[in-house]
Amino acid sequence: MNFDGFDLVVIGSGFFGTTIAERAARELGLTVAVIDKRTHFGGNSYSEINQETGIEVHPYGTHIFHTNSEEVWTYINKFTEFTDYRHRVFTVHGERVFSMPINLHTISSFFGRHFTPDEARALVAREMAADSIGEPANLEEKAIKSIGRPLYEAFIRGYTMKQWQTDPKQLPASIIGRLPVRFTFDDRYFFDRYEGMPRDGYGAIFRNMLSNPKISLMLGVDFFDIRHLIPSKTLVIYTGAIDRYYDYQFGELGWRTVDLEWEVANTPDFQGTSVMNYADADIPFTRIHEFRHLHPERPFDGQKTIIAREFSRFAKAGDEPYYPIATPQDRDLYERYVALTAQEPNVIFGGRLGTYRYLDMHQAIGAALKCFDTQVAPRFTTGKPLSI
Ligand code: FAD
Ligand code: UDP
Which has fewest Cβ within 10 Å: 4, 75, 245, 261? Predict the structure, then answer.
C-alpha cells in the first residue's frame, strides 16, 4: 500500500469522511485515499439488502434523515432522491399502545378522556406544582416539569433506565431535551423542515459520493496498521476515536453501545410500523425495529419480515461506541486529548468519534462541509496552515 501519490488521506467512510473526500475530489481535483477498517463504506449510516427477505436493513439501527439546514439538504440531494417518509413512533406500556413523543393523543389516551391543549397544559402545571420543581437539576426533574409525574412514570422512567442503566435522577436534563412534548395532535417524531428516506438506500448515497475516479477506497484497513506508510506532510482527516489515536494515554472516553438481536419472522408484517418502543422496565429491550416499514413505497409481497430487538448498555473495550456518555469527567478527558491535537499540524479530527459528540447524519455532513470550507480548501488554495 503506497500513499505517496495522495493529496489527502481520509480515515473513516462515514458521512463526515465521505463528505470531505467528495468535496476535495470534486471542488479541488485532489487525489484522495479513503480508508475504513470495516469491510463496507458508510460508517454507522450504512444500509444493505437482507438476502433472505429482500428487505433493506440498517445494520447499526434505524436511520432516518431529517434536517433544517438548507445547505445540507441541497448538498445531499445531489446524491439521492428522498421519499416522503415521515417517522412516527409508538410505545407499548402495559397492554396498550400510545403515540410517542408525548402529544395530545398520548395524553388523552393515557387519561382516557379528551384533552384540549389548555387542559393538558393546566394538568402539567398542577403536576409541577405538586412536585414543586424549580430549575430542573436532572433528567427526572426535567421530564416531570414538562409532562408531570404520571406520564413520566409510564413512558420515561422505565425506558430511560433500560437505555442508560442509570437512575434518571443521576442523568443530565439535556438528554430528554432531544424528545419534544407537544400540546397538539402532531405525532411526527421529528419536526425538521426536511425529512425522508433515501429512495435507493444509504448504500447508494455513499456509492454515488465516492464514485469520483480521484477517490480510492480501501476497505478492511485499520489506520493504526498503516499510519507509518502515510507521508508525514500529507493531510489526514481522522474520524476514528480520539482517545484511540493517542493510545488511551489519559484513559478511555465513556460510550454507550446497543446490541441488536436479529430475527426473520414468519409473517409479512410483525408490528405494523417501523419502530415500536417498549416503555416498561420488565421488558428487557428498549425497542423493536421492522425495516420494511421504512419504505412503504416499495412493492412488498414477501411472506417474511426482518426485525431487530434493541438492547442498550455501556460499551466495553472492543464494542462499537455509539452514544457519548459525556459525564463531566469524560468532558475533561476529551479536553486533554484536544490539547494534544495542537501538536498535529497535518491531522484534522472530525465526526462523532473524532470529536466525541453525538451527531445526527445532517450534523456530520454540515460539520464536514464547514471543515472543508474553513480548513481543507484554504490549505490547498492558499497554503494556509490548519487552525486548530
Ligand atoms: P461514523 O458513521 O461512525 O463513521 C466513522 C467510520 O470510521 C466508521 O466507518 C469506522 O469503521 C471508521 N474508523 C474508525 N476507526 C478507524 C480506524 N482506526 N481505521 C479505519 N477506519 C476507522 N442520525 C440521524 O440523522 N438519524 C437517525 O435516525 C440516526 N439514528 C442512529 C441510530 C443509532 C443506533 C446510532 C448509533 C446513530 C444514529 N444516527 C442517526 C447518527 C449517525 O449514525 C451519525 O450521524 C453518523 O454515523 C456520523 O458519521 P461519522 O462519519 O461521524 O461517523
Ligand atoms: N425516551 C423515553 N421514552 C421513549 C423515548 C425516549 O424515555 O419512548 C427518553 C430516553 O431517556 C432517551 C431520550 O428520551 O434517552 C432521547 O430519546 P431519543 O429517541 O432521541 O434517543 P435515541 O434513541 O436517539 O438515543
Answer: 4
